């Protein structure tokens, strides 16, 4: 799977303001910004993203996905700190 394919799958499953992906085809590192994360704890945010991947996680098509998840406000604050 390519980064573009993975990005398209996540974007199709949830509203995202920003997604960056890096990886080797099986092990991925993602930064995802979505208003859907408002009021959710980190584990709930990750579960929401995993839900968009569905069987791809079960079938090992995506072996590992490490995530940093932000609401738009959190993302703006993180970018201001750079």
UniProtKB/TrEMBL annotation:
* Pfam hit, one: BolA
Q: Which family does it belong to?
A: Belongs to the BolA/IbaG family.
The protein here is known as Acid stress-induced BolA-like protein IbaG/YrbA
Q: Which species does this protein come from?
A: Diaphorobacter nitroreducens
């Amino acid at each position: 799977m390519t980064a573009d394919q993975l990005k398209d799958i996540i974007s199709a499953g949830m509203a995202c303001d920003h997604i960056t992906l890096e990886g080797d085809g099986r092990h991925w590192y993602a930064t995802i910004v979505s208003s859907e994360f408002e009021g959710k704890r980190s584990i709930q945010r990750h579960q929401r993203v995993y839900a968009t991947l569905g069987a791809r996680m079960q079938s090992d098509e995506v072996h590992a996905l490490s995530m940093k998840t932000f609401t738009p406000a959190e993302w703006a604050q993180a970018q201001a700190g750079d």
